[in-house]
Specification:
Largest sheet: 20 strands, parallel
Shape: globular
Low-confidence stretches: 1-38
Distance between the termini: 53 Å
Mean pLDDT: 87
Protein name: Planctomycete cytochrome C
Structural class: alpha/beta
Strand content: 25-35%
Number of domains: 4
Number of helices: 13
Pfam families: Beta_helix (PF13229)
Keywords: Signal
């Protein structure tokens, strides 16, 4: 076995400075000592580049407390895995975007370069290059500052590049300042579903969309340069998202020049429909003010105002407003546009308008309720744009038949759009919150943990035998999480005299002091148990007064004990499956912050597996630790006095076993597998909530389940497919494409697996094939 320990972060988290110096290369004199008894005062830590920097940097981020500054030096930081940042009030700072470079070329794990979830997060003075997926994603945070950062895909533009460069999503109080984005296959600088945003002094070049503000309320975008993108500056609303209606967006003092780069987006992405040669584009968003910009030499349209109907995509969200209203375009310097129009609408429009398009183009779609009331007055305002020409190209009339018959009537009278609209208010941002000690709870827990798994007292005898100690119970699940075919042994330990309270939905209500353990292993030969096994890791979930926490212990080569590894690890594994097939995997052991990716529900860590419906099954066979003689493990727990409030058997919900055709029809088994493997993120409060896709077992809304739902932030993960699920057409459904992939920038889930579960993929395929057709 070849073991690549990315690091035992306990050496930092439990032992203070001496361990830090042993575990990492020499650090600068500005690095402050931290000891077991220190006061948790914020400090500056310098992490230089080096051969073990993946560990050094991730471990330091995990150990960060509010107010810490992580200083990165000049040099190239070679990284293969996503950097996960969960702490509040921290700053990651480089020596400048041309000096400090985080290089992700050949990234093998994780969907982002950096993913941050903590409030009051600052990233500045560095570059992030060649990530497999998005470069920097900040999810659900308050007070975000990204300053003087360059994100770039350094090769030729291709749909295989990451979708977004800088990607704050569902955040509040966001500042993107003096940043550069190059080569994104969707948007270089993207702000989605946020409130209170300033984007200023930035540059976007050679992206599909240079700067994009999507489903966001309150944004000022000014003093930026967007050039040589397919589309320069986009303000969009999309259906199916949690923040439904963007508004109050000001776009001013920008240079939007020569955005004529070929559109290299994946064909399945919405941004693939943006015509190359588009300067400023407003789609579906209300209350947008575009003024005092230099908009020149964009070869399709200088300013394009359209409804979502122009995208030729189904709308599966009944609450989505597809029509832009109260759009004000005034005081801009517009020239040289429309010389070589591109895009799906270009040919029919050329037949009607000629080969040169007007500078400002509107699709003329108005709200049907307004029109029905006899008040179809446009809510588009144009004024003082110099000699800029205009057309309302009347999308509803734009058909070959109308054009041929002479019935198509574009409107070029801008005087109809002279009714003024009140200027929008300026966006102001609040300062970051001061650091608070309470945000250090996770670090305090991590530092208090035993270094060895054996010290937790879960097992007696040789540790590898996993013989439960008194009060430790083995359990099993109907449908488990897939983890690259690893075998798992699961145990629960309750504090003395305490009980679990039954809950029909979600995880059972465990008492403070509960420890849940799960050991992952591979048999050397699944057909011959006598050949033994390779034990890799034991994951521990523990519940204290502050909530749940998750960590991993990595087993040694001797298989005698496991050591705490907050920074994660990676192990090469070879084994023979029961069918005689030889398999190999570079097995990824997650770091402590990655645990939050799957277990975070509304920013709170929760167990995933032990729910009533997934535990409602026979007790594990041959379980010598079973607390009572009973066929059902929930009943056994109740008989042992460990579970309170268990209802009658008929009232307990249950999951089918996804791999047992006798347990339920295929659609139910597929939904069970998707719930366990996907819905911990893809639900209304999970970390993938921003996509609008909800794969929870009890989700009945077909649109939220992905049926005819257009992708959001998928990039080339859409595989050229336009919808998450198309009934009866699995090979045209993005969901199946991502389950079938082993590419870290495409595959789902993108944490916790590297291989494909062929049986589950076949089941999901059958579910989609048999799905009744809908429109």
């Amino acid at each position: 076995m070849r073991r690549h320990l990315i690091g035992l972060a306990l050496l930092i988290c439990l032992s203070g400075l001496a361990s830090c110096q042993r575990a990492a290369p020499p650090v600068s004199a500005t690095t402050a000592a931290r000891t077991e008894g220190d006061s948790f005062e914020p400090q500056t830590y310098v992490i230089p580049p080096g051969p073990r920097v993946q560990f050094d940097l991730q471990a330091r981020v995990i150990d960060a407390i509010p107010g810490d500054v992580i200083q990165l030096e000049a040099g190239r930081y070679e990284l293969q895995r996503q950097l996960d940042v969960a702490a509040h009030n921290i700053t990651i700072r480089g020596r400048g975007p041309e000096k400090t470079i985080l290089a992700f070329k050949g990234q093998s794990a994780g969907g982002q370069g950096i993913e941050a979830t903590g409030n009051n997060f600052t990233l500045e003075g560095l570059a992030v290059e060649d990530t497999a997926g998005n470069a920097v994603k900040v999810l659900g945070a308050r007070n975000v500052t990204i300053r003087d950062v360059r994100v770039e895909w350094t090769g030729e533009p291709t749909s295989a590049n990451g979708a977004y460069g800088l990607y704050p999503v569902q955040c509040q109080n966001v500042l993107l300042e003096n940043c550069t984005a190059i080569g994104a296959s969707d948007a270089g600088l993207y702000v989605g579903q946020c409130r209170g945003v300033i984007v200023r002094g930035c540059r976007a070049e050679r992206n599909v969309a240079g700067i994009e503000i999507e489903n966001t309320v309150g944004a000022d975008v000014f003093d930026n340069v967007a050039t040589n993108n397919a589309g320069g500056l986009m303000v969009f609303d999309m259906p199916g998202l949690q923040l439904k209606a963007g508004s109050d967006i000001r776009v001013f003092r920008n240079k939007v020049v020569a955005n004529n780069h070929p559109n290299f987006a994946d064909p399945g992405a919405i941004v693939a429909a943006v015509p190359s040669g588009t300067g400023v584009m407003v789609m579906a968003t209300d209350r947008v003010e575009v003024f005092d910009n230099q908009i020149e030499d964009n070869q399709t349209a200088s300013v394009l105002i359209v409804s979502y109907l122009a995208m030729d995509r189904k709308i599966n969200d009944p609450n989505f407003d597809a029509i832009p209203e109260f759009i004000s375009v005034h005081g801009n310097r517009i020239a040289g546009g429309g010389q070589n129009p591109q895009g799906a609408l270009a040919e029919p429009l050329k037949a009607a308008l000629g080969d040169k398009f007007p500078d400002i183009m509107w699709d003329g779609v108005v709200n049907s309720a307004t029109a029905a009331a006899g008040n179809a007055k446009p809510t588009i305002y144009l004024a003082d744009n110099g000699a800029a020409s205009y057309v309302n190209f009347n999308l509803a009339q734009l058909t070959p038949e109308n054009i041929q018959a002479g019935a198509y009537k574009p409107d070029v009278d801008a005087a109809l759009l002279s009714a003024g609209i009140e200027p929008l208010p300026e966006v102001t941002l609040a300062p970051h919150d001061p650091p608070t000690a309470s945000a250090s709870a996770a670090v305090r827990v991590y530092r208090s943990l035993p270094r060895k798994l054996s010290e937790l007292g879960l097992f007696e005898g040789p540790l590898a035998e996993h013989r439960p100690a008194a009060g430790v119970v083995l359990y099993d699940l109907n449908t488990p999480l897939f983890s690259d075919f690893a075998e798992k042994r699961r145990f629960i330990k309750l504090p003395p005299g305490k009980q679990i309270d039954y809950r029909a939905e979600g995880p059972l209500a465990f008492p403070v002091g509960t420890v849940i353990s799960k050991t992952f292993s591979y048999p050397h030969d699944a057909a011959d148990p006598s050949k033994g096994e390779q034990i890799l890791e034991t994951r521990i979930e523990l519940f204290n007064e502050d909530g749940w926490y998750g960590v991993t212990y990595v087993w040694n080569d001797e298989q005698t004990d496991a050591e705490l590894a907050l920074g994660g690890s990676e192990v090469d594994v070879d084994w023979i499956q029961a069918d005689g097939r030889s398999r190999h995997v570079d097995y990824v052991i997650p770091n402590a912050n990655q645990c939050l990716n799957c277990h975070a529900q509304d920013k709170k860590f929760l167990p995933i597996g032990p729910t009533a419906r997934n535990l409602n099954r026979p007790a594990p066979s041959g379980d010598a630790s079973a607390p009572a003689a009973a066929d059902n493990q929930l009943v056994a727990l109740a008989h042992a006095g460990m579970l309170a409030g268990l209802p009658a058997a008929a009232e307990i919900p249950t999951f089918p076993r996804f791999d047992d055709p006798h347990s339920a029809p295929a659609d139910q088994r597929a939904r069970a597998w998707l719930d366990v493997n996907c819905a911990h993120c893809h639900n209304a409060v999970g970390t993938a909530r921003t996509s609008g896709l909800d794969l929870s077992w009890d989700q009945a809304d077909l649109a939220k389940l992905g049926v005819w739902k257009a992708p959001v932030a998928a990039g080339h993960g859409s595989g050229g497919r336009k919808y998450d699920v198309i009934p009866g057409k699995p090979d045209e459904s993005i969901l199946l494409f991502r389950l079938e992939s082993e590419d870290p920038s495409i595959m789902m889930p993108n944490v916790g697996r590297r291989l494909v579960n062929e049986d589950a993929v076949a089941l999901v395929r059958e579910w989609i094939e048999k799905m009744p057709p809908t429109e």
